[in-house]
């Protein structure tokens, strides 16, 4: 259903931006996994507003409460309920949006679909909805880390508008977290920060590309046909706010190669079947082959810009609208933990499905 | 599940390449929809081998049989079973593939997943699996055409390797079908045909990009959060064989724009809310806005090349493999009806879900 | 999944008996349905402890909080999060249960399944889990009442042990609610109250049968084959705690009749197709026929008895256990609103599915 | 969906009584399970018409064809397609049923739901639909037998109308199959055969109760809350044609006991936790406890009787109808393998779900 994801490790998020809070229920988490609220909070802190000078200055602590499914630091196997109370609400900032549809937001389409919407803060279409995903992703990661030795998911900002990061030979979480953009190239990071600050000062916004490398996924995860691993990753990424594209391995650029150039030759690395190149991006025929899973996600420039734009009212009249309020001039630094969370959620579900099939 | 797709209009495909046949069950098709076997056959003919000089010369008629769910040319509302018998099988062409893993195919990953596989013809990983999808898509289209005035889905080849088609102002199905590449630019078509014939003569292959325009989808389809319309389209496309990327509206190129440039301003067109530009690609916040839905899909160069490649055996020894057999040097002409079928399937499911919600 | 129910109107409950609280997420509720917290609270009050002298004297207010999905008294179409905080917890009453398995409870099976369990109050196996169902059922009823004129679901206690209520010609909600047993026969009610008080004073317990009549369900709801309306009702009822049997229409007694006696003859009642008898219980071939839906559910005597019983410990030693604490000597008065809630949930889901199919 | 069942071991049946045939797709069967068409055929032979003098004399061979998912006698892990062609069709026998609704059949409700139906042979509502279930059940049993030592499911006729079988101490498949009624009491079998022949000679019909004992299910299968093992069994049984009731363990009779009488005391049997009695029917809190699972299913007398009955036409006029054709005067002998098949399907699904959770 619309607010649920997963077959065996299934999450259901709920909550509007300016209601009492947002949350998630995780149904299907295996029992006896060590889990503390800090495991969750540390990931929420990576996505929360106000964490640095280049993200929205809204003051939301986003403190997670575990409401069920965990006892004495260990999962019970029963549904885990998580709740984050909304705090920093300034409905007044949204008064005029009640009538005018914000361009490239979901205001109009929600009205078209439901005939009603929670105007304040974007309601359900707010990126606050992703809190539940990030929290659930933190739990999924715990499950994977306990079962898959070497499992690691590293997302990072690859480009901001025309600025591109160099990806170093040795990619680490520490490197990515060493700068507030969450890119893997400290030099690029400085230029990216400047760019973001510059466009924000103009009331404008920029987008970019997040790249993600997943290590330690054994060969054999993913289902052929519809639930291919890359298909589920694509859906997961395209379900994040502001995403416009997904590509895996060679992606769109791979269409410029010939088959002979593009194919990944197999070779034996001791006991292991490996490929010399990784244009497949770690997945062949929908199933992981044991190589690193590598994909990219395009995020559009933030739709909220603090400049006057033409639009229409919900009663069908042309008008103009100037957004106020505190928004991200670039969503990518905060999108990095969202991408990682979605990876954890997709991989854990396929891991459990494979365990059922082939124990 | 792995071989099923959809919530209300749900399809389940089955069948291996060189077994008795392939098929699909469609569960949830509304009753009293006019449907003949010709409606289905005409779409299967667009995807079948041997249809032109630039596709694989295998001689498969791919004749569809309706086994249930239809009586006197009208759907009953009960599951529709469809069956296409396999005919042109030459298992001998696959003998050596029993042991050597074909590079960038699913041979190795199937073994890793299942510990067994149907070697001949690629078994379940063969593109023959898409027969069921194309057949089901033809039925989905009938449902949509009966309910949504002006519904139309036009996919076409946008690029083959470095060759790009110009998209004309007036795009029609006739134009696309006027050439065997299924592109919208007759001049480009000639060059594309030459390219495909040239790479084939070298035992090599090429890929490219399919673009798709969907018209007549009313505002309001798609679910916020996980089952966003673009997320389901992305999954559907990335579940097709050989796809490496998906982008909607402005896509990856949109990351080079600023928010002010990228936003789609609303205006009133008589009674209708419209946008001046369509960088959103017809979907905002996961929900259709009534504009044309526009997306692109990257298809890699065919993995089967008739040249010697290095690989390994299923017992862990390095070896070489030269594919024989009759294959597509470029899958895109046959991929066009597959893309359209997946669109029909995604849209009809969201159409029915919306009808349940908001009748 | 284990804690979710429904295809289009989908609920997910969460929460342990003695954790922070219990709740439910309802995903798929149509928009623009009037809904207040009182609509929900009034049903929770019918199931809560301490409501009368014949139910457990635990002091739980069970106050519902709406956390999302409702604005200004109207549903938004987005997930509705509901939360009831746990209050009256006396973990000390459960100390010895940590080791000894309570007979005919779920202590042993939870340990066998999960290797861990929340001992206090029964954790997830507590009947407190049904709070989320009753709350969700109240919302389902609102949806149905708005769409189906005359929709009404009346459950009542048919028997307590050997005591049987007479069902009057005119059955009303007021009659059922006129006595604390929730039976439809005031004379029987008195004897039933006496019986319950008597067994309780002996530390013992009794069970019985709830009968349920559903009116105003139009012909055509329910899916043939697996999701037959009676199959989904059976599952819903057998998913309630303490249920041991389900029968519809003529039920087990119907096996004593011949086909000629058992068949429900059709006749025209003005424009309407009706049946003279209703041995079918309002459902034929899995689909409602417009007659009253009538079924019965067997509830076993409460497993918690305040008498010494033989059992084993979780380390495999024979032992004895005497329950203490405050429990229901008979669950049926509180089970009545649970049965009704499950009916609402099953019917609304089939109602929405039918609306999708046949708008 | 309506024609699919299961979460991980998922089946989808299709087919009308008098169309080309009926079939099933099984998605999620583990790989490398030995499987031959005889494994399936032997179960189909137990449900097919014409197998004895007390069942319908229709001449249907019901020969199964495996269309996919199996190679060289072993499952591939991919969807298994099964097909049984319809042969003995006498549409003429159904001419007058095109207009008159057969009492207590699904004719009227199908029309109410779909506005159309396949009249001949009952179309989708025919018991021929259960062919796919029985075939799929045979496969599920193979999976279970390979993984669960001692797994065995024995269903048998407990009563035919007022005649009741004695259940012997030692219950075996051979005993049940030793008589054409499939009861566990040879003396009762004779009287039951007489009764069935007698009612048939009068053009009438009888029903009865099937009891089922499932052995070798380990403790821990089943999900708490909605997907309780008994809830899924109840749904599975109530989804079979002609069923009116389900009870597990003590069932409806258990409501006459007190809690002290009803509770199943635990004791240690060597290393194993066992219960002295089995009023729980092998399931506690929705989860198997390792004891035998015991339940009963009520089957109504066959609706088809060869006597004149009052009914109405599909155009709203009162009429009478006398069924002709060849029907079962009592469905129970053929229902026994159906009950077993549904048990296999429910248990294998929960077995795989548990394996995913707790490998």
Could you outline the blueprint of secondary structure elements for this entry?
Four copies of one chain form a homotetramer.
Chain A: E1 4-5, E2 10-15, E3 21-27, H1 37-47, E4 64-66, E5 70-71, E6 74-75, E7 80-85, H2 107-114, H3 130-147, E8 152-160, E9 163-164, H4 173-177, H5 186-201, E10 208-215, H6 229-238, E11 243-248, H7 259-262, E12 266-269, E13 272-275, E14 283-284, E15 287-288, E16 293-299, E17 308-312, E18 318-322, H8 332-357
Antiparallel strand pairs in A: 1-2, 2-3, 3-7, 4-7, 5-6, 8-9, 8-10, 10-16, 11-16, 12-13, 14-15, 17-18
Helix pairs in contact in A: 1-3, 1-8, 3-8, 6-8
In whole angstroms, the N-to-C terminal distance of chain A is 29 Å
According to CATH, what is the topology of chain A? Answer: Chorismate synthase, AroC fold
Order of helices and strands of chain A: EEEHEEEEHHEEHHEHEHEEEEEEEH
Taken from the alpha-carbon principal axes, the silhouette of chain A is globular
What composes the largest sheet of chain A?
Answer: 5 strands, antiparallel
Secondary structure: number of strands of chain A: 18
What oligomeric state best describes the polypeptide chains here? homotetramer
CATH architecture of chain A: 4-Layer Sandwich
Q: Which strand-content bin applies to the residues of chain A? A: 15-25%
